[in-house]
Amino acid sequence: MKDKIVLITGGTGGIGKQTALALAKLGAQVIVTGRNPTSGATAVEELKQQSGNSKIDFIVADISSQAQIRALADQFKRKYERLDVLINNAGVAESQRKLTIDNIETDFAVNVIAPYLLTDLLMDCLCASPSARVITLTGGEHPAKIEMDNLQGERSFLGLQAYSHSKLIMMAVMDELAQRNHAANITFNICYPGQAATNMTQSVTPDMLPGAMRLMYPLFKLATRSDGGKSAAKASRASIYLASSPEVHGVSGKYFNPECAVIDLPAPVLDQSIRQQLWETVERLAPIAQFQAAK
To answer: Is the model's pLDDT at 292 over the cut of 60?
Structure first.
C-alpha cells in the first residue's frame, strides 16, 4: 500500500478509524472524512502517532448533504490527482424518521445516496489510478425484501429495521453500479464487517428495536459496550483486506463476510426489476450523478 491514496468516509472513529490506522501502517496516504472538525483533527493526530505515518489528512463533510458531498469531492480533487481506494464506510441509524436538507430521509441519504454519489463524483480520480478499488460497507440484519413503497420510511419507520433496510437497498445500488462499470481498472465490492462497539451501536435506544427484541436490550448494550476499539479493529478486517490484498486484484461485484470470504448476495438484491427501479430512484434524488464510466 506504499504511496497508495485512500479515502475513507467516516474514518474518524469506529471501524473507519481502525481501517485508516491499518492502511496507514501499510504505508498508504490516508484521507478520512467526518462531520466534526475538532474530532477530525484529533483523530488525524492519533492516527499519525499510532501509525508512524505522517501522510494522513482530514476533510470535513456531513455526507447527509449532497452539497457537502460535492464539496468533499471538489476538495479532494484540488489536492489529489488520483484515488486508488475509496472506502464508503460512513453509516447512520436514526432513532426517528428525519429529513435532510435535501428533503431525503437521513438513513437513505447517508447509507444509499452518499456512497453512490461520492463514487460517481470521484470517478475521474478513480480512473486515473492504475488499479482502483471501491469498497462499500453494509450492516444490520438483512430484511427478506426491499419495500419499494417504503424506501424512505414513508409508510413505517423503526430505527434498526430502517437502517437494515437502507443498507440492503445500498447493496442493490452499489452492485448495480459494479455491473454497469466499464472502466477496466476499477473494482467494486461490498463487505459486511460484523458487529462492533462503535458510537453508532452505542447510541441505539430501546425504541429503535422491534417489540420482542426490546426485552433483550440490556444484552445488546452489554455486547456493544466500549472495548477500546478491539471489536472495531476486528470488524475492519474485511475492509483492510479488500483495500490491500493482492488476492482480490481484479475481483469485482462480490460480497465479502467478516472473515474475508466471498458469500452470496441476499436474494432481494438480485431482483433485476427492483434494481432498475432503485437505480432510477437514486438518479432522480441525486440528479447531478451520472455514472461516468458507463458512458
So the answer is: no
Range of the domain at 132: 5-294
Alpha carbon distance 152, 16 (integer Å): 25
pLDDT digits (tens, 9 = 90+) for 107-141: 999 999 999 999 999 999 999 999 999 999 999 88
Helices and strands in the chain: count of H runs, count of E runs: 12, 8
User: What is the bridge-based pairing of β-strands 5-8 and 85-88?
Assistant: parallel
71, with CB counted inside 10 A (0-12, 13-18, 19+), is: middle
Sheet holding 254-256, edge to edge: 56-60, 29-34, 5-8, 85-88, 132-137, 186-191, 254-256, 262-263
Find out whether 8 and 31 touch, Cβ atoms under 8 Å. Answer: yes
Q: Give the H or E element holding residue 29.
A: strand 29-34
Rounded CA-CA distance 167/110 in Å is 10
Identify the residue whose cell numbers are 452539497: 67
pLDDT at 40 over 50: yes
Q: How many domains does the chain contain in total? A: 1
C-alpha cell at 221: 448494550
CATH number at residue 69: 3.40.50.720
What CA dihedral angle connects 160, 232, 234 and 21, to 10 degrees?
140
pLDDT tier at 30, thresholds 50, 70, 90: very high
Asked whether the CA dihedral 176, 181, 184, 190 is positive or negative, the reply is negative
For the chain, how long is the longest CA-to-CA vector? 52
The C-alpha cell that represents 162 in the structure block: 430502517
The sign of the CA dihedral 285, 172, 10, 207 is: positive
